[in-house]
Amino acid sequence: MKNYLLLILFVASTSSMFFQGCKSGCGDGTSKKAGDQTAVLHELADADKLNPLTSSSANSSYMQLNIFQGLLTTDFKTLQSVGLLAIDRPQIAELNDGMYKGGMSLTYEIRPEAVWDNGTPITAADVIFTVKAALNPSVQSQNIRSYYEFIDDIVADSGNPKKFTIYAKERYILAETMGLNVILPEYAYDPKGLLKNFTIAQIKDKANANNPTFKTFADDFNNKHDREKGTVIGSGAYSFENWTTGQSISLKRKANWWGDKVKDAPQLAANPTSITYKIVNDWTTAITAMKSEDLDVAYGISAPDFVELQKNDCFKQHYNLHSPISLQYDYLGLNMKNTKLTDKRVRRALAHLMDKREIVENLLYGLGQPIVGPIHPTKPYYNRSLPDVQYDPDMAKKLLKEAGWEDTDGDGVVDKEIDGQRVPLKLSFKYNSGNDRRKNYGLLLQESAKKVGIEIEVLSREWTVLLEESKRRDFDIVALGWVQSPTPDDLKQIWHTESDTPDGSNRVGFGNAETDRIIDQIKTTLDEEKRKELYMQIQQIIYDEQPYVFLVSPKERIAIHNRFGNAEPSINRPGFDEKAFTVKVADKP
Questions:
Q1: CB atoms within 10 A of CB 350
Q2: pTM given for the model
Q3: DSSP 276
C-alpha cells in the first residue's frame, strides 16, 4: 500500500510542476469576467434527471434547488428552517384525541405572491398533488418516499386556498423539514387530473398498489419530466433551458419571477442572469478551464489539486478557495446478496484492508477524517464508542480463513466451495469515471487485497451508468458517497428493508425485522435522548454487520470566482448557494 501511495504523491508532485509553470501567464491580474452576470459551475458528470421526485444523484438535487422550491428551506448561514414558498414555518400541534390521536398537525400558508409560470396561484391543491405523486407506488420515488409516508391527509382551508393543514397519525422527526421540500404544479405534471379523485389514504393503501390509473399516471410522470424543455417546471427563479449530454445543463433566470415581489426575504435571492453546469469529467481539464476563467465555481476539487491551488498566487487573483466541513462521507458498498459477501467476516476482512489514516494523510492531504458509521461525526448522536476498523491485513487473512476461504490450488487467490463448486474470491470494484479519489480507493484496495489472496478488478463507469448498475445491484463493491443535511437523520431511505428495491437506496441489501423496528422508532421518537439511544443501537448493528466499508468524511474543497459576493461557504450542501451570488460591478476604465 505504501508503495502505491508514493506513486500518488509522485503524480501530485507532477501536478505541482504543472501549476508552478502556469504562474508566468498571470499578467496584470485583470479578470476577463469582471461584471459578468452569469455563473458557470463545474460538474464531473451529467445529472441523472431533473424530476425531483425520481432523481437520485446529489448533483441533480443541487440543480433542482434553482428550478423547484419547497415550503421551507434551510438558511445557509444559520442552518435554521425559514419560509420559502410558505410565509413562515408551520404551526405545529400534537393531537391527543380524535382520529389522529397520538399524531400531529402542521398548518402552513403559501405566500400570496407565489404563482406558477402560467400565472396561476400556487395553492394547497399543488401540495396535495405532489404528496400523492410521491406516494404513488408506481412512481419511481422510492428513494425519497419515506419522507412523505407520515402524511395521512391534507385539508385545504375553506376560505383560503393557499392555507392548509397536514394531519399525521404519528409524530415524525422530520415532519417540518423534509416532507414537503419540493412542490410541483398539478396543471403541468398531471394535466389529465388522474390523481385528483383519489385521496392520500387511497394512494397509501397497499390494496390499491396495482391500480391501473396509478400506473397510467406513473408511465408519463416517470419519463416525461426528466430533461425536455417545457416539461421541467417549478416555482423557482430559474427555468430549465437546455441539456447537451456530456457537455452542459443551462438554466435562465425568469423575467417575471414572483419572488422578486417579496421584500426582506434573502432566502428568495436570485441574482445571476443564467446558471450553466458545465460537465468536465477530469480534474486536469477542469483546472485548466478555471485558469482560463471558463468556470466560475468548482466543488469537490481533488485534494492534491486544491493544495496546489492554495499555493498558486495567479489563480488566487481571480478565485477564493474554501474548505468547510461537509456533511458527507465516502464508503464502499458491499453487495450482501452476492454469495461471496454474505458472510460478515468477509466484509470485515475487506474493511481491514483499507488504511483510512493513510487515505486522510496522502489522498486527502489532511482535509478529512475517518468515520465508522452512517452518522456524521458532527452530529451529537454519533457513536464515539465504536473503534475504527484498523488497517490490518493479518486480521483480514484470519477472518477469511475462519469464513472458509483458503488458497487450495496454490494460484494466489483464496477459494471456497459454494453450492458444490470451488469459487475463487474475485471481486469487481466499480466507481464513476473522473472521480480520482474513488479510483484511488479501488487501487489501494486492489493492492492490499492481493496480499491476502483476494483479486479485485477496478472498473470505471460513466456516472449515470454506475447509478443504473447500482440500482440493479450489478456490483460486488461500489465506491459511492452520501451527502446529508443538518437535520436529524431518518435512516429509512438507506437502511430499511423497504428501501431494498430497484428504486430504493438500500442497494447493499442490509436489514432485518429488528433493524427495521429501530429505524421506524427513530422516525417517530421526538424525545432527543430516547432517539439518541436508538441511534446508538442502529450504529452498533451496522458496525457489526459491515454492509459498507465506511471510509472518510472529506472536507469540501471549493473555488469560487472572486467577482461574486455573498458567496461564503456553508456546512449545508453543496457548500454554496449560487443563485444568491451577487455580482460586483466592473471597474470603469
A1: 26
A2: 0.85
A3: E
Tell me the domains of the chain and their CATH numbers: 66-224 (3.90.76.10), 328-554 (3.10.105.10)
Radius of gyration of the chain (CA): 25
194 and 202 Cβ atoms separated by less than 8 Å: no
Dist. CA 93–CA 171, nearest whole Å: 10
Distance from C-alpha of 152 to C-alpha of 131, rounded to nearest angstrom: 10
Cα separation, 3 vs 102, in Å, equals: 60
Which residues touch 519 (CB under 8 Å, ≥6 apart)?
491, 492, 495, 496, 538
What local confidence, expressed as pLDDT, does residue 19 receive? 44
State how far the Cα of 267 lies from the Cα of 259, in Å rounded to an integer.
Answer: 10
Q: Is 352 buried (19+), middle (13-18) or exposed (0-12) by CB count in 10 A?
A: buried
Q: Tell me: the pLDDT tens digits for 422-455?
A: 999 999 999 999 899 999 999 999 999 999 999 9
Q: How far apart are CA 494 and CA 504, in angstroms?
A: 8
Angle 152-158-160 from CA coordinates, rounded to 5°: 100
DSSP H helices, 525-584, are 528-545
- Residue of 234, 91, 87 whose CA lies nearest to 166: 91
pLDDT band (50, 70, 90) for residue 76: confident
Q: Is the peptide bond before 488 cis (omega within 30 degrees of 0)?
A: no
**Do residues 108 and 125 make contact, with C-beta atoms less than 8 angstroms apart?**
no
Terminal-residue alpha carbon distance, the chain: 56
The rounded distance, in Å, linking the Cα atoms of 90 and 69 is 16
Contacts of 453 (CB under 8 A, 6+ apart): 397, 400, 405, 407, 412, 413, 414, 425
Residue 572: pLDDT band (50, 70, 90) is: confident
